[in-house]
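RETRY 2/3 - previous attempt timed out on the joint model. Re-submitting the same 1380-residue input unchanged.
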Amino acid sequence: MEIVQHKNDIWGQEVLLGVSWDLLWLVVVASFAVIIVHLLVMALRKRAEQPATEGTRLNRHAKSDRIFHWVMAISTLVLLFTGILPIIGVKFGWLTIHWISGIVLTASVLFHIVRALFWQDPLSMWVAPKDLREPFDSSQKPGKYSLAQKGMHLAMTLVVLVVIGSGLVMLSLIDTPFWTRGAWLGEGALGWVFVLHGLSTLALIALSALHIYFGVRPEKLFYTRSMIKGWISEPELEAHHDPARWMPDKIV
Amino acid sequence: MSAHDVMPDIELYQPITVEDAVALAERHGENGWLLAGGQDTYGWLKDRAKHTSAMIDLNAIDALKGIRELAGGIEIGALTSLTEIQNNSSVVAKFGLLAEAVAHVASPQIRNMGTLGGNLVQDTRCWYYRRGLSCYRAGGNTCYANTPEGMNREHAIFGASRCVAVTPSDTAPALVALEAQMVIVGPDGERIVAAEDFFVGPNVDIRSMTTLETGEVLTAVRIPGKWATSEYYFEKVADRNVWDFALVSVAAVMKLNGGNITDARFACGGVACVPQRLPAVERAVIGKPRNDETGLAAGAIASNGAVTLNYNHFKVPLIENLVRRAVRG
Amino acid sequence: MTYRHIGKDFTPPDIVSKVTGKAKYSEDFQVDGMVYARLLTSPMPHGKVKNIDLSEALAMEGVIGVLTADDVPPSQAPNPAILTNEPVYVGDPILAIAAVDEKTAEDAISKVRVELEPLPFTTSPTDSLRPGGPSARTEGNVFIQREMSQINWSDEDLQRFLDGKEPTGEAPTEWSFGDLEAGFDNATVVMEESFVTTGYAHMCMEPRSVLSYWQNGKCHVYGSTQSQSFVVPSLAEQLGIEQKDLVYVSEFCGGGFGSKIASYPVLALPGYFSKKLARPVMLRITREEEFYVGSARVGFQGWIKAGFKADGTVSAVDLYIVQDLGSQGTGGDASSAGGAVSILYQPDAMRLRAIPVLTNTTPRGAQRGPGQNQIAAIFEPMLDKAARELGIDPLEIRRVNAPDSSARINANQGPVTSAYMVEALDKGGELFNWKERKKRSGQRNGSKVTGIGVGQGYHSAGESGFDGLVRITPDGKIHLHSGVGNLGTYSYVSTTRAAAEVLNCSWENCVVEHGNSALHLPWSSYQAGSNTTFTHTRANYMAAQDMLTKIKEIAAVTLGGAADDYDVADERVFNTGDTTRSMSYAEVARRSIELGGRYSGAEMPDDIHQVTQRAVQGLAGSGLIGVAKDVLPVRGTVPGLAVAFAEIELDLETGKHEIIDYLAVAECGTVVHPQGLAGQLCGGAVWGFGMASLERHVYDPQNGLPANVGYYQCKPPTYLDVPREIQTAAVDIADPDNPMGARGIGEPAMGCATAAVLCALSDALGGHIFNRTPVTPDMIINHLAKQPQSYAKLAMNTF
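RETRY 2/3 succeeded.
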């Protein structure tokens, strides 16, 4: 299986064209395989008691962060569907939706970066050495974010930045109501941009699949609720987090 | 990218029924190639800009040929030659617009060989694409025509989306104006698609100009009786009077009552990847007399929304003029 | 003077085979063991071959071998190479592969991996002339006095030129006559225009396909050329062999138009390939390749300033031309353009400056009226503009400037043999009903407006010093050996009728030998430059005179008396005093073999060309030989002149025009072959219409790719783009320097048509001139819509 596709440039010389979309199936299959394996493992394991959702409600996600998350999630899903469906043969006018969603995603990511860096505690998402003990030591509980969450965030950050960066280059090469397409990029470099966009798209598919899967798992569902409603219960905090490392405010 | 000008080795299949043709087309999938008159096909294959391993020659399928009367309208087999359509008394009497459009296709020799189906599904004539370059339409990741110094006199002013190629067909605008229906047979049976929906722009499918899927065969074109014997206008402006593609063409049908236009449909070739409907023009002429004054007003809005490239801004006044002429009669 | 053959129609011997398809063009020949070659051409406008991987291609079944640039002699820039490792245009041949059939050869071509390193390139002369601009060849960007060199203008010089101001950039070609300043001072109206003419392809219907093989040390080449004998020295040189070792066959030529005058690179390719493989090699050139190797017209970017006196006479012309030579070219077009202006308008003073610049586009060569026809397309509409300002009728302003037999031409202001342009204008004016028609000028009919135009064309139309060869065999047949190529004008045969005229014989008894050097053909001029009719009626006349003298001498020797006592008629020589003392030509032929010496060809004149010498050697002893070099005087340039009249209807809403009526009048001395002349005037008209408003040369400047590599893309006129009938006429006044009174006509027949149509278009637009060819519907629409044109002012290679 090829990882990239080649084409001939205008002078018949071989250049990169983009990622090989055969990889799409590989990524989909691999993602499902991981999910199925996880499902099986979890099914065999003894079910842990779910902490009560009653009790004092603690603030986990501010409203603006929740809005950001869902805007980003929706735009990412729209981008994935508008980008992938035409490749697998579903034909519709995808490009305008795609680039507008891309701008929404870019804007929300920019908003998040600025907000997280200057108004929030960026270190709360930082993977510290001691976080690495989490998977091996059940007594080791995380602060606001678990190692898995931090890892997902880190991977998402990397992939989304690449997909946004390559996407913005591509956006400059199509006509929009705001500019006519540029021609500043040679065909060789253009191929690399397409490869990066394609690879990051594939990674995004895998990450999104896992993210959604874990988001709807029973033991993690309270995180999804917190991303919708903003709060977790005190028992949930105690079960999954170390209040010494993260003590959220109570919701009055 | 060399001009090979020699046919490669291709397996030839000559089915005699539509079912067999569809089965072959399905079996060979992307590697199959449907052959009608060959006037578009042979160039691609001899230049080796496109490839196929299995040629499915439809010419032996009698069911795909001929012109049949339909309640009020007609049905034309997709393999019917353009010359036959041009000379068919029923087409001439009822759908003069189509007869005239057909008469403007290419040259008499090409019309003898060329078929209606082939004329409708032929590929665009963008010269970059025809050179076999790996552009968007050929599966690449760029457009060579819409570049700062690209040579794009013949390219689109409407509906461009990365690709700026235009429809080369003379019959397509006429059939869109006549509200024809495309009869398509595929592995899952028959489906009927309105002519207007049959053609797709690059925003929807940058690789194909029609909604025909691999494994499907366009078997016939049905023209309903709605516009039979209506007033019509066809004009094609090309550099040459024979063997040339439209810079801009206009196909229009109109119904008149008491001197006023009561209904109208306009479609233009050479300005977009698909036959370009002009709904604003149609709305503007309804209720007005068919004269130069109406034409001038309708022409003025015909180019609304046009986006021009380096060399094709002449198409803006040209489409305005042609619509004016179409209305004026 | 009344003639038996001259001025009469006849059926040329190749007509029937042409219309029945029996004619054998080069690709129709088949020989045992023949293999088929195909070319791999450059995908980029300028590059260097770094590596060629043939392993996959040569391993294929049926592949015989490969020919690369290393197998053929290198060429000196800017001459085109047979094959090259430094391609200088898209389509430049890099290598050839031979196989058992063309499909296998093409399959193999697609398996060759050529690694190319891109080099700087340009598609526009002015782009190359800017400071630091790209040069089309590593050896330089201009070709001056047969040398490559480098010229770059300053930014200021370039900008002035692009702005249409009087050019100041270096122009290595310069000539002038008269007092230019005084000329402009004397002018009532001074026009100043900058212009562009398109250098479009020759588009020969027969691509330059070639078959070659070696037999008994001789190289046999079946090719497609305009000329026959003239090709032999250049092809032999290209093959690196002696002329005697070349057998060259070109019985038919499916169009050359200046691109197949002498040998050309691919004509020699199968010779080398065949030698390497020891197999006969057929190379068929594809239609697309013909657009590459088949060459194109030289394009002009120029500036012109012309002064007109109150009566319309031209007082001064200052002409400046940047020539686009493509990747190879002679650069003679600009000077020829200057020459045409000097004769057609007889200015008091004139200056020509020119710079020939190479670009990475198709090689350029002479194309029907090279220079003369480009300038006709520009000067004639400008002349109308001046006439409009002066209030003079377009026909009248041409009359007052028209050359007569005292006309002067070129930088040296030399004489002409004769010229009757006023007569041509008057005859045309009358036949076209100019005065009445001119009243329709500007008349509206719905969206259409009528335009009336008159245009003129010129080309030098005669050479001298070539050889004639005639022979009478013992069967009484008169063999007219013609070294003239069969380029489609029938001059290969019509000029031999001058010999039949002298010999006073019936045409049925004549056999025209042509098209194959093995048939012993005399040295001939190039079949180009409209010269053949003048040149070879003279050569045939001279050979026939030699023959006539010999016939009379043989009669005198055999029947008694003096040679002067004898005359000829009905294939007999007879004593004028006693007609019973006579011999048939057959008897004369038999007697000549007995007599030997100069009669049988055993001896021959010293001054004939070595090609003719070999022909006579080959024929010696087979009959009576008449052979001579044309040493008749020529007192000046031999002008070919033509006038055309056109009425058009221009649709102001579509930008399209229809040529309603067209008349061409030839001023080419005595008409030798009326149907042939009509053919030239009609063909010239169609070419002219194409140049005026259709034919294109389009390159994408970003990557050097040509947009027009097919007929439908280049848009030569079709049957429905030309008027249903084309009227032709001729002045038919004898030229004193040709024994038959004839001059040539082929090229002016086109220039006048281009000019007439462009003038008519301008007339329909109320005098607007575009200063550009072709004038296409989009230009007219943009003009009428008051939109800017889509091309930059002096841009080349646009639509």
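Chain B has one domain: 10-329. Closing ticket.
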